[in-house]
Amino acid sequence: MSRAFWALGGRFETKAGVAETGNGYSMFEAVMTKLAEPPLHVHHGEDEAWYVLSGKLTFHIGDQVHVAPPGTYVFAPRDVPHWFTVDEEPTRVLVFASPGGAFERIVGETGVPVESHPGPVPPDPATLAEPLRRNGVEILAPPPGH
User: Fold this and answer.
1) Number of structural domains, the chain?
2) What is the pLDDT of residues 33-76, one digit of tens each?
3) Would you say the pTM of this structure is higher than 0.85?
4) CB-CB contact of 69 with 52 (8 Å)
């Protein structure tokens, strides 16, 4: 079973899944390009956090803006709308979702194993809608500028 997928516009490799953490959290190493910039959305059942390894992201979480160069940790609590931009391509980041499960299912259900595809797959809103809804993620607005 693959643990690395082209999903949500980036490459997500599961580093610690629910099997390893007893559903406590899921952790991914992600490589993101502009394709990975999400719409304004909210997770109703999980907290989300990022640790930037290389590159740069800008997060909009509630009414706060966090510019995130390497070494930056950013936290988005559940039920707080957020989105981010990829300011340097590619950006490498650790992504944490707690409790585990929902984000891991979204990546697995909507992604393509990296072994079967040569590069990033643009996200398809129609394909993402049901897995997002089923896993407690609500899209609130299209990506800014789109």
Assistant:
1) 1
2) 999 999 999 999 999 999 999 999 999 999 999 999 999 999 99
3) yes
4) yes
